[in-house]
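Q: Can someone sanity-check these two? First one:
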Amino acid sequence: CKRYKLLAEFAKEVLHDKFIRLDFTVTVTDVDRFMDAKSLWHEELENITDKTKTKLQTVIMRMLREAELTSKNDIIQPKLLSANLVRVIASDSIDLFALFPISETDVRGVLNGQ
């Protein structure tokens, strides 16, 4: 996500938001809607071919599974981050927590020593 801005935006705007709303399924349709919305702001997405769009959908869904953020059935897998990992991520940027399917309460609890 730190390397590819589009993936970070997807993680924040789709994966994390769906998790917070208790909607635990990520679908190709979610990727499609996200890409359509982003094409308004990213000119390079506006003119991609259907083949490229399908490839991007496939890659995003595969990356979510490989990172174990979703199951093989595309169900969001909540992350339990260790206290040490929470502190390391927070030392980089507190904004990075929005990339994970976790609750802000859990993160704040660790950062506040609870």
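And here is the second, same format, sequence then tokens:
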Amino acid sequence: AYAKLFHRMAESVGLQDQLCVGPANGGLHEWNQTLVNGQWLYTDSTWNDCAGQDLYYLSPTLGRDHGFEYYDYDLM
């Protein structure tokens, strides 16, 4: 639900956003890729949510603990 909500919030302020799916820490996971100032950046708003962190990362490269498999167009 975090990635879907982030997707809708990003698009509501005019940002292009894609939902990404793939393995992370041994399970299937979903995160976002958002176009910011002409650069696609990955964001995982779910990771470490209980640790009080706002975002796991905002990076042009995917974290080593995530493996991209496909874009989730059904949830967009």
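A (reply): Looked at the second one. Residues 2-12 form the longest helix (11 residues). Helices lie at 2-12.
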